[in-house]
Amino acid sequence: MADDLYTRYQQARDTWRTHQETCESCRAGQHCPAGAPLDRRLADLQDAYLCRLRSRGGNR
């Protein structure tokens, strides 16, 4: 069974990258109104996923 948190984390990463490819502001590090929540979601999911890994001793 796939890890739902990992799947959501990877989907958020893909969504962010797709947005960043076409957004000059986000590429420059100044998040646009659409990009800011995408970046925040990616960061939140990444933090949650890494925290889970640490709590499991690195095993997924």
Brief description of this entry?
It is built from 3 helices and no strands. It has 60 residues and is mostly helical. The mean pLDDT is 91.
Describe this structure in words.
The chain starts with a helix and ends in a 5-residue tail after the last helix. It is built from 3 helices and no strands. The chain is elongated and about 40 Å long.
End-to-end C-alpha gap: 11 Å
Spatial shape: elongated
How would you characterize the largest beta sheet?
A: none
Rounded Rg: 13 Å
- The share of residues in extended strands comes to under 5%
The secondary-structure element order is HHH
Give the class from helix and strand content and strand pairing. Answer: mainly alpha
Instruction: Tell me how many strands there are.
Output: 0
> Percentage of helical residues?
over 70%
- H/I helix tally: 3
Q: What's the overall average pLDDT, rounded?
A: 91
